[in-house]
Amino acid sequence: MKKILFSLFLSLAFSSSAMAQKSNDAWVKQIRKSYAEALKKIETGQQDANLNNKAVIVINQNFPGSGPSEFTVEYFFDTKDSEQFEGEQERQLYFMRVKERWAETPSVYEYLFNTENGDLMFYFAKTIDPETGKNHERRDYYNGIKAEPFLEIIDGKNYKTSVDDQWMFIKRFLMGYREVFNNLPPYFEH
User: Fold this and answer.
1) What is the dihedral sign for C-alpha 6, 8, 10, 16?
2) pLDDT in tens, 92-122
3) Whole-angstrom Cα distance, residue 52 to residue 134?
4) What residues does 109 pair with on adjacent strands?
Protein backbone atom coordinates (compact mmCIF):
# COMPACT_ATOMS: atom_id res chain seq x y z
CA MET A 1 0.00 0.00 0.00
CA LYS A 2 2.84 2.39 0.85
CA LYS A 3 4.43 1.72 -2.53
CA ILE A 4 1.16 2.49 -4.30
CA LEU A 5 0.71 5.76 -2.39
CA PHE A 6 4.34 6.71 -3.00
CA SER A 7 3.98 5.93 -6.73
CA LEU A 8 0.77 7.96 -6.87
CA PHE A 9 2.49 10.87 -5.09
CA LEU A 10 5.45 10.75 -7.49
CA SER A 11 3.22 10.64 -10.57
CA LEU A 12 1.17 13.60 -9.30
CA ALA A 13 4.31 15.56 -8.46
CA PHE A 14 5.82 14.78 -11.86
CA SER A 15 2.65 15.66 -13.79
CA SER A 16 2.19 18.96 -11.91
CA SER A 17 5.87 19.77 -12.45
CA ALA A 18 5.54 18.94 -16.16
CA MET A 19 2.40 21.10 -16.41
CA ALA A 20 4.15 23.99 -14.63
CA GLN A 21 7.12 23.65 -17.01
CA LYS A 22 4.79 23.63 -20.01
CA SER A 23 3.02 26.70 -18.62
CA ASN A 24 6.38 28.44 -18.03
CA ASP A 25 7.52 27.57 -21.56
CA ALA A 26 4.32 29.06 -22.99
CA TRP A 27 4.79 32.17 -20.83
CA VAL A 28 8.41 32.57 -22.02
CA LYS A 29 7.20 32.35 -25.65
CA GLN A 30 4.54 34.99 -24.96
CA ILE A 31 7.07 37.27 -23.24
CA ARG A 32 9.51 36.93 -26.14
CA LYS A 33 6.71 37.75 -28.58
CA SER A 34 5.71 40.81 -26.51
CA TYR A 35 9.35 41.92 -26.34
CA ALA A 36 9.72 41.68 -30.13
CA GLU A 37 6.45 43.61 -30.58
CA ALA A 38 7.62 46.33 -28.17
CA LEU A 39 10.92 46.75 -30.03
CA LYS A 40 9.05 46.92 -33.35
CA LYS A 41 6.69 49.56 -31.92
CA ILE A 42 9.68 51.59 -30.70
CA GLU A 43 11.37 51.33 -34.12
CA THR A 44 8.15 52.39 -35.86
CA GLY A 45 7.85 55.33 -33.46
CA GLN A 46 11.36 56.46 -34.32
CA GLN A 47 10.38 56.54 -37.99
CA ASP A 48 6.99 58.22 -37.49
CA ALA A 49 6.87 61.07 -34.95
CA ASN A 50 3.07 60.67 -34.63
CA LEU A 51 3.62 57.22 -33.10
CA ASN A 52 6.57 58.15 -30.89
CA ASN A 53 5.23 58.20 -27.33
CA LYS A 54 8.46 58.53 -25.40
CA ALA A 55 9.87 60.43 -22.43
CA VAL A 56 13.63 60.71 -21.91
CA ILE A 57 15.61 61.79 -18.88
CA VAL A 58 19.36 62.37 -19.27
CA ILE A 59 21.77 63.10 -16.45
CA ASN A 60 25.41 63.96 -17.18
CA GLN A 61 27.64 64.10 -14.15
CA ASN A 62 31.35 64.19 -13.45
CA PHE A 63 32.26 61.73 -10.69
CA PRO A 64 35.62 62.04 -8.91
CA GLY A 65 37.83 59.12 -9.83
CA SER A 66 35.76 57.92 -12.79
CA GLY A 67 35.19 61.13 -14.74
CA PRO A 68 32.24 62.12 -16.89
CA SER A 69 29.29 59.73 -16.72
CA GLU A 70 25.91 59.66 -18.40
CA PHE A 71 22.65 58.13 -17.23
CA THR A 72 19.68 57.97 -19.65
CA VAL A 73 16.19 56.62 -18.94
CA GLU A 74 13.83 56.15 -21.89
CA TYR A 75 10.15 55.54 -21.15
CA PHE A 76 8.01 54.17 -23.99
CA PHE A 77 4.27 54.32 -23.44
CA ASP A 78 0.84 54.14 -25.02
CA THR A 79 -1.92 56.60 -24.23
CA LYS A 80 -5.58 56.06 -23.45
CA ASP A 81 -8.42 58.36 -22.52
CA SER A 82 -8.41 59.22 -18.84
CA GLU A 83 -11.17 57.72 -16.72
CA GLN A 84 -10.75 60.53 -14.16
CA PHE A 85 -10.39 63.66 -16.29
CA GLU A 86 -12.47 64.21 -19.41
CA GLY A 87 -10.44 65.27 -22.43
CA GLU A 88 -7.10 64.14 -20.95
CA GLN A 89 -5.05 61.06 -21.63
CA GLU A 90 -3.22 58.66 -19.34
CA ARG A 91 0.15 57.13 -20.11
CA GLN A 92 0.53 53.38 -20.01
CA LEU A 93 4.19 52.31 -19.73
CA TYR A 94 5.06 49.26 -21.82
CA PHE A 95 8.88 49.44 -22.09
CA MET A 96 11.74 51.19 -20.38
CA ARG A 97 15.43 51.32 -21.30
CA VAL A 98 18.15 52.56 -18.98
CA LYS A 99 21.58 53.33 -20.43
CA GLU A 100 24.52 54.01 -18.17
CA ARG A 101 28.05 55.02 -18.98
CA TRP A 102 30.35 55.21 -15.98
CA ALA A 103 33.67 56.59 -17.23
CA GLU A 104 33.98 54.58 -20.45
CA THR A 105 32.01 51.48 -19.36
CA PRO A 106 28.52 51.26 -20.95
CA SER A 107 25.59 49.24 -19.61
CA VAL A 108 22.03 48.74 -20.87
CA TYR A 109 19.00 47.63 -18.85
CA GLU A 110 15.58 46.95 -20.36
CA TYR A 111 12.22 46.39 -18.69
CA LEU A 112 9.11 45.03 -20.44
CA PHE A 113 5.73 45.55 -18.81
CA ASN A 114 2.38 43.81 -19.17
CA THR A 115 0.20 46.41 -20.87
CA GLU A 116 -2.96 45.14 -19.16
CA ASN A 117 -1.86 45.39 -15.53
CA GLY A 118 1.56 47.12 -15.58
CA ASP A 119 3.43 44.17 -14.03
CA LEU A 120 7.06 43.56 -14.93
CA MET A 121 7.30 40.70 -17.44
CA PHE A 122 10.94 40.76 -18.49
CA TYR A 123 14.23 42.29 -17.47
CA PHE A 124 17.38 42.36 -19.63
CA ALA A 125 20.82 43.62 -18.63
CA LYS A 126 23.95 43.89 -20.75
CA THR A 127 26.96 44.98 -18.74
CA ILE A 128 30.73 44.92 -18.97
CA ASP A 129 32.95 44.03 -16.07
CA PRO A 130 35.19 47.13 -15.79
CA GLU A 131 38.13 45.12 -14.46
CA THR A 132 38.12 42.23 -16.94
CA GLY A 133 36.30 43.78 -19.90
CA LYS A 134 34.12 40.67 -20.08
CA ASN A 135 30.51 41.08 -21.30
CA HIS A 136 27.67 39.86 -19.09
CA GLU A 137 24.02 39.36 -20.03
CA ARG A 138 21.07 38.63 -17.80
CA ARG A 139 17.46 37.83 -18.69
CA ASP A 140 14.80 37.48 -15.99
CA TYR A 141 11.28 36.28 -16.83
CA TYR A 142 8.38 37.19 -14.51
CA ASN A 143 4.79 36.00 -14.43
CA GLY A 144 3.39 38.78 -12.24
CA ILE A 145 2.23 36.44 -9.48
CA LYS A 146 5.51 36.26 -7.59
CA ALA A 147 8.08 38.95 -6.99
CA GLU A 148 11.00 36.81 -8.13
CA PRO A 149 11.51 35.56 -11.69
CA PHE A 150 10.47 32.03 -12.65
CA LEU A 151 13.42 31.79 -15.06
CA GLU A 152 16.82 33.48 -15.08
CA ILE A 153 19.28 33.25 -17.93
CA ILE A 154 22.68 34.53 -16.87
CA ASP A 155 25.49 34.57 -19.45
CA GLY A 156 23.63 31.96 -21.51
CA LYS A 157 22.96 29.53 -18.64
CA ASN A 158 19.33 28.80 -17.68
CA TYR A 159 18.26 28.75 -14.05
CA LYS A 160 14.71 27.56 -13.30
CA THR A 161 14.85 29.17 -9.86
CA SER A 162 16.46 32.35 -8.64
CA VAL A 163 20.20 31.91 -8.19
CA ASP A 164 20.85 35.22 -6.50
CA ASP A 165 19.07 38.20 -5.01
CA GLN A 166 19.64 40.46 -8.02
CA TRP A 167 15.90 40.50 -8.73
CA MET A 168 15.35 42.33 -5.41
CA PHE A 169 17.63 45.15 -6.60
CA ILE A 170 15.90 45.15 -9.98
CA LYS A 171 12.51 45.59 -8.31
CA ARG A 172 13.83 48.25 -5.92
CA PHE A 173 15.33 50.37 -8.69
CA LEU A 174 12.24 49.79 -10.82
CA MET A 175 10.10 51.36 -8.10
CA GLY A 176 12.14 54.56 -8.34
CA TYR A 177 12.02 54.63 -12.16
CA ARG A 178 8.26 54.11 -12.13
CA GLU A 179 7.77 56.81 -9.52
CA VAL A 180 9.52 59.28 -11.84
CA PHE A 181 7.36 58.13 -14.79
CA ASN A 182 4.16 58.38 -12.75
CA ASN A 183 5.06 61.96 -11.73
CA LEU A 184 5.72 63.29 -15.23
CA PRO A 185 3.44 66.24 -15.97
CA PRO A 186 0.19 65.17 -17.69
CA TYR A 187 0.88 67.46 -20.65
CA PHE A 188 3.40 70.04 -21.72
CA GLU A 189 2.69 73.75 -22.14
CA HIS A 190 4.89 76.25 -23.92
Assistant:
1) negative
2) 999 999 999 887 788 999 999 998 888 999 9
3) 34
4) 98, 125
